[in-house]
Amino acid sequence: MYLTSKIILHPTEQQENTLKNLISIYKSEVNECLKKFILNKKLTWIPYSSLNRHLPWESKKEVIKEASKIFRDRFKLQGTINQQVSFTGDYCKWHCNSFTFASKLNLQIGQQSRMIVEYYADEYQKHLLSSGYLTSLKITKIEKKWICYIKILKPDPQPFGEYVLGVDLGIKVPAVAATNVGKIRFFGNGRELRYICTHQTNRLSKLMKDKNFKIIRKMNKRWGNKLLNIDHRISKAIIDFAVDENVGTIYLENLNHIQKKSDAGRRISTWSYTRLKSFIEYKAQTKGISVKLINPHNTSKTCPKCNRLNQSLTRQYTCPCGYKNHRDIVGALNICNYNSRRSN
């Protein structure tokens, strides 16, 4: 199991110049390797000695890996490679043998030289760094901050739990969860999300009229951070509920590309389904809980009691058989019982 930790670096002015130079060399060398692959129309062997001598030896591995990945991905996508393919990333990578983390980051910056950089990490990040094998490191500059991404290999956790949890993700109610033993829980506040989006959209339109782009950039960042924090809280609460209820499998609706499939999808442009789903998936993985995506067809229309299809125009679901419930609870129950419904 691979996890990624994000850490903020505090390099000196001289160290910043060194990192900028390495990023420029890394980008240039990846593009040179790409040109060789395109010229030969296949992946060819490139000796490390032919790459820039100012790059750390272990970073040369990452250069060739990066160029090979771009070449393979583009060839699979298009079936052919044109001369315009290039690497546009502004970062540099290091292999596990060329850096160490202790109280400071010890980083190889040349064939023989090293650089010690200060960084900030909270207690969770420090625990994460010490809990697995550090495989690679990527450094980039985002706005005015130097960010370090560390890829960590951890042993897969033991399978957890025996019960099933169905989670219905939505707009008015961010998430409703139901277990196969009848436990139900609501997560998040749809009104809070709508208020944030409406308030920020109105403010954004005013700033656009005044052409105050500096404040717009800051506002967009704060807006994104608020929504990101809400999704983290919701996903954590869902996984904590799953752990408390001894859940081993979580079912989610596969709503990818919903905006492309229907006009109704255009109304949910501010809904962060993909991000919330990814948060649930990786947090479940750390607990040994598997996540499976299911077909969302009629999950909110099917009666959990008699399997009859009913169209509900309000939040209250009613079936002629006498069954009544909240429409999102109906969806969560049908998602939870997906395998049994399909077999019937």
Structure description:
This protein is an alpha+beta fold and 344 residues long. The protein folds into two domains: 2-153, no CATH class; 163-188 and 232-343, YqgF/RNase H-like domain (Nucleotidyltransferase, domain 5). The protein contains nine helices and 14 strands. It has helices at 13-40, 57-78, 123-130, 190-210, 213-244, 258-261, 273-286, 327-336, 338-343; strands at 2-10, 91-95, 99-101, 105-108, 114-120, 133-142, 145-153, 163-169, 175-179, 184-187, 247-253, 290-294, 316-318, 324-326. A seven-stranded antiparallel β-sheet has the order 2-6-7-1-5-4-3. It has a five-stranded mixed β-sheet with strand order 10-9-8-11-12. β8 and β9 (175-179) form a beta hairpin. α1 crosses α2 (57-78), α4 (190-210) packs antiparallel against α5 and α5 (213-244) crosses α7 (273-286). The longest helix has 32 residues, at 213-244. The protein is elongated, with a radius of gyration of 25 Å. The protein starts with a strand and ends with a helix.
